Amino acid sequence: MIEAVHQYLEELEKSRRFSPNTVTAYKKDIQSYLDFLTQRGRDIARVDFHDVRDFIYELHRRGNSARSIVRKLSSLRGLYRHLIRIGAISVDPTILILPPREKRTLPEVLSEKVIAEAIDEAPVVSTIEIRDIAILELLYGTGIRRAELSDLNLDSVKDKFIHVIGKGDKERIVPLTGKAREALDTYLKIRSALANAGEHEPALFLSLRGSRITTRQIARRVEKMLRRSSGAKKLSPHQLRHSFATHLLDRGADLREIQELLGHTSPKTTQIYTHVGIGRLVKIYNRAHPRAGKTQED
Q: Which of 88, 135, 185, 287 has the most CB atoms around it within 10 Å of its CB?
């Protein structure tokens, strides 16, 4: 049965194109579940609903957040679907387990001014700095995830568009802004200076060693650029994705169009940006309308 578990994890890595971070998280989730079963003297092939429920209760007891528990449950469901598919078991013990409700927090959005200053005031002396500006322009101009940016190849760039392969191998075409295309062209002229690993490296964005840039490297470089203008302590490339969607919505873009650009499967995922827009609208209203303040008693 352990071999079947390893087979499932290999399938995640090779067949379904999960990111390395996701695969690592799934491995930890499944290992903690296996450890729990071992402590109870239970075999994964003979687990029932009560064992899974007790595992969820134990996660609650340890202080795991609702989001963390939802992810762990998703890991187990994927595993049991695999075990049923290969005939190792006949009943999925997770099917009756209801995930806890996540407390949805609105995504943090950077202002247009902060992003513009981060790009326009960034130094452009070294090849790395030129590359970083192209990365920032691309993340904000297209709304792609940092893992999707890391996966881009030279042939992913199609004139004024990029060909993106997202979660679950889903492909989409995303237009480039004029600024993003300009920054990309500037970077491509000096890209060969980074290609120490050889001329045949297909990756669009390279590290100093000439290899494909990693998601962690992207996060560090983007955070450094944004901190110059923002001053915030906690910054990430994902905020550029949130800002991309929110700024489009603020300027009248249709929610369905934003969903397509972001590569969201369900419109429910994109609808969170309507709440962001309403929240910003309320703040503007309260600040600007002469009758929006608290009323005073006579």
A: 135
